[in-house]
């Protein structure tokens, strides 16, 4: 039997006999980009005395960093402040396209690719959502496999490299097929947006490799590709991206052949305080994204990172076997049908 690692948020939802739909009403048309609410808020009081503060926002308006800033402002006012400590700055023109537009960088997130083996997001409806908890011990064992020149890699980078490799092995993709790893990069540190800026300063970085090379090489191979993709997001990349979107009619990102992960561990969702202290859990609801990293605790109270990922049912056991080969710990997972 696989040991169960259960998020505290999931336990709260079970005790409340609630699902994601119960915690945030799905207002008609709210899933659209245009003619939809900019913000939805629902507070659900629990019989234990706690509460769940559910929010949904239009991503065109802000990114996660800006939204956490907004949530902290609400918390400060709720605790008695007259004005938030960080004043909001709109300045939507800050990342306007140049005149004339100049696309100077390659934006792989919008490549037109043929899907393989039914791996696009549209085909994930029958996949199962699984989670794995990486504690300090597991993370340390992964880092021990990293060569000296990559010692400064982040937890996200090394964990993403591990999962990309294990997932590709589990899916048994043809060795000659190209596979991709994509993730949002907060580019605000690459240049100097105004303090308090709420707009989007994220771009999707993309690493790519043949399936065969990714599976046959050690962890450092995937790690270097991910670090290289992250380093490509510069101020010029962001300016070029704005120009690309204008020239190409704002196309959708390509998800074919792509393992896409969002990292919420450093966003600060759990640090928001509305007067009752910090949150037990802060982040998106399960199922909101294909794969997600979030800060959490295991059933022993140890801090770590819980990873949620969707996989075809027939590949789940192989996926966790591959992880265990790398971290060499007993299986720790929960599987739930979507």
From TrEMBL:
Q: Does the keyword Lipoprotein apply?
A: no
Top-level taxonomic group: Eukaryota
Alphabetical UniProt keywords:
Transferase
Q: What Pfam families has UniProt attached to this entry? A: Transferase
The GO terms describing molecular function are:
transferase activity
Q: Which family does it belong to?
A: Belongs to the plant acyltransferase family.
Q: Which PANTHER family match?
A: ACYL TRANSFERASE 4, OS05G0315700 PROTEIN
Q: What is this protein called?
A: Benzyl alcohol o-benzoyltransferase
- Native source organism of the sequence: Thalictrum thalictroides (Rue-anemone)
User: Organism classification, top ranks?
Assistant: Eukaryota, Viridiplantae, Streptophyta, Embryophyta, Tracheophyta
């Amino acid at each position: 039997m696989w040991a169960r690692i259960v998020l505290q948020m999931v336990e709260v939802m079970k005790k409340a006999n609630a699902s994601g739909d119960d915690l945030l009403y799905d207002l008609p048309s709210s899933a659209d980009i245009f003619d939809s609410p900019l913000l939805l808020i629902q507070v659900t009081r629990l019989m234990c005395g706690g509460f769940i503060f559910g929010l949904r926002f239009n991503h065109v308006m802000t990114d996660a960093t800006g939204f956490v800033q907004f949530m902290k402002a609400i918390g400060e006012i709720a605790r008695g402040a007259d004005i938030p400590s960080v004043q909001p700055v709109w300045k939507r023109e800050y990342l306007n396209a140049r005149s004339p537009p100049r696309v100077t960088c390659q934006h792989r997130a919008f490549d037109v690719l043929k899907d393989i083996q039914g791996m696009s997001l549209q085909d994930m409806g029958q996949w199962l959502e699984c989670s794995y908890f990486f504690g300090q011990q597991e993370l340390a064992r992964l880092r021990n496999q990293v060569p000296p020149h990559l010692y400064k890699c982040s937890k996200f980078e090394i964990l993403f490299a591990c999962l990309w490799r294990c997932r590709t092995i589990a899916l048994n993709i043809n060795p000659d097929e190209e596979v991709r790893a994509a993730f949002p990069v907060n580019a605000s540190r690459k240049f100097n947006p105004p303090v308090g800026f709420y707009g989007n300063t994220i771009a999707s970085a993309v690493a790519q490799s043949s399936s065969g090379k990714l599976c046959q090489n050690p962890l450092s191979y995937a790690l270097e590709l991910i670090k290289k993709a992250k380093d490509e997001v510069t101020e010029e990349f962001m300016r070029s991206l704005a120009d690309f979107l204008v020239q190409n009619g704002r196309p959708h990102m390509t998800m074919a052949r792509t393992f896409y992960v969002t990292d919420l561990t450093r966003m600060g969702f759990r640090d928001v305080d509305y007067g009752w202290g910090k949150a037990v859990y802060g982040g998106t609801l399960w199922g909101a994204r294909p794969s997600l990293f979030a800060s959490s605790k295991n059933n022993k109270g140890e801090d770590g990172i819980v990873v949620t990922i969707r996989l075809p049912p027939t590949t789940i056991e192989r996926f966790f076997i591959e992880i265990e080969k790398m971290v060499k710990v007993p299986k720790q997972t929960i599987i739930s049908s979507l």
